[in-house]
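Cross-posting from the modeling subforum.

Setting up a comparison between two proteins and wanted a second pair of eyes on the formatting. Protein 1 (sequence, then structure tokens):
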Amino acid sequence: MARTTPHDPPADEGEPLYRRIARELLGELRDGTVPPGERLPGERRLAGHFGVSRETVRQALELLRRDGLVATDRRGSHATLPGLPVETPASLTFPVGARTAAPGGVTRATVSWEAPPADHAEALELAPGRPTLVHRYRYATADGQGLRTAVTSFSAVALAEVEELARYRDRADGTAAAQLRRAYDWMRRAGLTLHHRDAITPLASTPSVRVTRRVHDQYARPLEITDLVVDAQRDALVYEFTLPGRAAQAATDGRRSPVRRFAGAGSRT
């Protein structure tokens, strides 16, 4: 965005200029130009975009902060406008494939502080042998069928910026129960915008499939990687998500976007 003028244009009679800029910026947030949680351009770029001074932009941002529409942390300002999140809870349950406990079903989840699998370390940009928080999940129905197992490793970025995850380090002995089903909510609360890719592949000579989920933030920094193994002969994965092309329109007119569901093998970005 090129700067159009070094001086503020005259404000509309009776309305401070910074209020008009705040209103125009709010309109761009609402139309999806900047999705909720995404980082806003810097003051210099915003000043050039609206053709005003940086001081006017600063006052407009402060007005939006007071209304709870913009938040600022050490990474800068980002939109907090209420609306559809980048990823809905239905599409990002933790860990991937986690089941709602059925009568008689057995669920176990633990955390440990250990060196992750080599492929996890590489995906998370961790040095070989460097320990991190590793989460293990196991689910089976009452008859022992429908077995699901998942191993999740978290990155140094996730542990540094998500306080709730960091707290588990001192009690990650691999035996105590640990439910991290709100892990993605904690990440969002820390100002991270979540993007993920799921790859589903069959395991050779077995009836099982492996789902590998990789999650990164708005700066392309890895946050976590999960390997889930499902007995595809006795179970099925169901994905539920909102089509992104309709999300912005739904957020502006108050209607829910259509939800598509599918089960079986495939991949999702």
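Protein 2 (same layout):
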Amino acid sequence: MQLKKKRWHCLPGQEPTDMDLKIMALEKKGKLVPTRDMIKTPEQIEGIRRSGVVNTGCLDAVADAIHVGMNTQEIDDICMQYCKDHNAIPACLNYEGYPKSVCTSINEVVCHGVPKKEDVLQEGDIINVDMTTIVDGYFADASRMFIVGGKATPEKERLVRVAKECLEIGAEAAKPYCFVGDIGHAVQKHAEKNGYGVVRDLCGHGVGVEFHEQPDIVHFGHRGTGMLLVPGMVFTIEPMINMGTWKVFIDADDPYGWEVITGDEKPSAQWEHTFLMTEHGLEILTH
């Protein structure tokens, strides 16, 4: 009989800490626990925090400039210039062939919208701007919703508001030694209570030393399921909330093959922060 390999190991020559004992006890009960390399060092956390400051500043620059009549290539230009001015690298650029520095997803585009000159913002559009920065090798990731012109239909405005509430409620559910499923359960409950669908084909993720790390942070599910979240882990919560069905597709005619669209082509909204899990709860590293 082959014994199952343990995921969590104590540091050689050191007595187990309280955290070690908690994690090992839960692993013994069959729970999925992180590996030690998912726990960021103080140096790594400070690097991710610095990247988060630049990331937030970049989205602030977009917020100051976004207006009716601008095209999404102009948003990409703002983000690229901000990165150059702050010694940062846009992580999206050339990532698995992605052609731009930022994602700009309008109305029914859920995520990964590609900036282009022909996508001109109209009054009442809702748009998600999703930016990941690399500063000194450390990654930080965030996205915001914008209502173009400051006013949309009541249905779109409500969707944007509830999507932000889903992020906030998911973050409130994330306590030290909770599980990914606790976040997903809270998000799904709030979204569906409001009549919305939660995208299941895309998720949040670990981040910091690489663009996408473990664990996957799904935004639906049951309490007590998924990976254990412990102090020192850094990850995003980024629920994608659809006005209608949770299902999505990529248009076969999309020349880039990136843009994810709602299955019924109704609007979608998303907010995202990068978080650090501490002994006392989540610290927001990007806004």
